[in-house]
Specification:
The complex is a heterodimer of chains A (about 190) and B (about 140). Chain A has about 190 residues and is of the alpha+beta class. Chain A has two domains: about 100 residues, Beta-Lactamase; about 70 residues, Pdz3 Domain. Helix content of chain A is about 20%, strand content about 30%. In chain A, the strands form three sheets. In chain A, strands 2-1-11-10-9 form a five-stranded antiparallel β-sheet. In chain A, strands 3-8-6-7 form a four-stranded antiparallel β-sheet, with no helix packed on it. Chain A has a two-stranded antiparallel ribbon with strand order 4-5. Chain B is an alpha+beta fold and about 140 residues long. Chain B has one domain: Beta-Lactamase, CATH 3.30.450. In chain B, about 35% of the residues lie in helices and about 20% in strands. In chain B, strand 3 and strand 4 form a beta hairpin. Classes of the chains: A alpha+beta (about 190), B alpha+beta (about 140). Chain A: It holds the Pfam family Sybindin.
């Protein structure tokens, strides 16, 4: 999938729409015996790898499933705490799936507001006159494109770094937004789009 | 095609070096505050990128561009950050930033027993070598383009 996600941010920096298309997230499932050679820690209601790396499992990966059953935050599917469960040698050998954690809605809201501020700082620190905010942010795994309209709405698209034609995509999304959201009499401006 | 300015930060946010070549607009705040704002922005962008990325990252945040300038970023495993603002025509210059770190900063500052680390670099040799290196780059033109 070349387009990873689309976000629409309103004038105040709040997220009003988000769309994630399926992206192949790095995941690895392995069977472990006691003791676990990865150090786990609880962070933000998730169990993450704090130290240790093997076979595709890296620092920052979260525990996604134990013995095939998806975990629910820091609790297993049966309601036991993951860290306690994995600390008990009686539960081994156990098969655990690790992977990059998916973003929760709250996290997406926070990241959208963070980007809104970074966009403004990018324009303030400009060495040139009349600079816009951040229009394209490049990393080695994705490229983030942003289009700000005259009314302050930002359309943000995360795509593969080699994907072309995102500028026309952003304008097309703007067209669709104005056709379906703005012309809808029941839609209030700056509110989340349903 | 030109280079606007260059910042060098250490892992604690101290600005080790700043020089500018063609800068038309000042930020409107003092230099101290500008360094702090720049460092804070980069720190936030790094954390933003690591959360947003759909796959595990190797190099992390590389660059961003606006309608007028492009900011290139290179960070070493020790937390030294090299930040260069150029205009839009410049492509990936990670190797240039790496050279600034390894052949200029490490050679002239880190290996110099009289240069205290963790504060602004006073070495005149470093400043002049950096300046001549930047002026020798193929995308640097003396006339602000």
């Amino acid at each position: 999938m070349a387009i990873f996600s689309v976000y629409v941010v309103n004038k105040a920096g709040g997220l009003i729409y988000h769309l994630d298309s399926y992206a192949p997230r790095a995941e690895a499932e392995k069977t472990f015996s006691y003791p676990l050679d990865l150090l786990l820690k609880l962070h933000d209601e998730r169990v993450l790898v704090a130290f240790g790396q093997r076979d595709g499992i890296r620092v920052g990966h979260a525990v996604l499933a134990i013995n095939g059953k998806d975990v629910n935050g820091k609790y297993t599917a049966d309601g036991k705490e993951v860290l306690e469960y994995l600390g008990n040698p009686a539960n081994y050998p156990v098969s655990v799936r690790f992977g990059r954690p998916r973003l929760t809605s709250n996290e997406k809201l926070m990241l959208a507001s963070m980007f809104h501020s970074l966009f403004a700082i990018g324009s303030q620190l400009s060495p040139e006159q009349g600079s816009s905010g951040i229009e394209m942010l490049e990393t080695d795994t994705f490229k983030l494109h942003c289009f700000q309209t005259l009314t302050g709405i930002k359309f943000v698209v995360l795509a593969d770094p080699r994907q072309a034609g995102i500028d026309s995509l952003l304008r097309k999304i703007y067209e669709i937004y104005s056709d379906f959201a703005l012309k809808n009499p029941f839609y209030s401006l700056e509110m989340p789009i349903r | 095609m030109t280079v606007h300015n260059l910042y060098l930060f250490d892992r604690n946010g101290v600005c080790l070096h700043y020089s500018e070549w063609h800068r038309k607009k000042q930020a409107g705040i003092s230099k101290e505050e500008e360094f702090k704002l720049m460092y804070g922005m980069l720190f936030s962008i790094r954390s933003f990128v690591s959360k947003m990325s759909p796959l595990d990252m190797k190099d992390g945040f590389l660059a961003f561009q606006t309608s007028r300038y492009k900011l290139h970023y290179y960070e070493t495993p020790t937390g030294i950050k090299v930040v260069m603002n150029t205009d839009l025509g410049v492509g990936p210059i990670r190797d240039v930033l790496h050279h600034i770190y390894s052949a200029l900063y490490v050679e002239l500052v880190v290996k110099n027993p009289l240069c205290p680390l963790g504060q602004t670099v006073q070495s005149e040799l470093f400043r002049s070598r950096l300046d001549s290196y930047i002026r020798s780059l193929p995308f640097f033109s003396a006339r602000a383009g």
